[in-house]
Amino acid sequence: MPTRTLSITDKAYKALKASKKEGESFTDVILRLTGNKGSAQRLLEMMDDLHSPELADRVEQASKEFRKNFRTRDVEL
Question: In principle, which of 12, 21, 35, 77 could form an S-S bond with 8, CB 3.0–4.6 Å?
Answer without folding.
Answer: 12
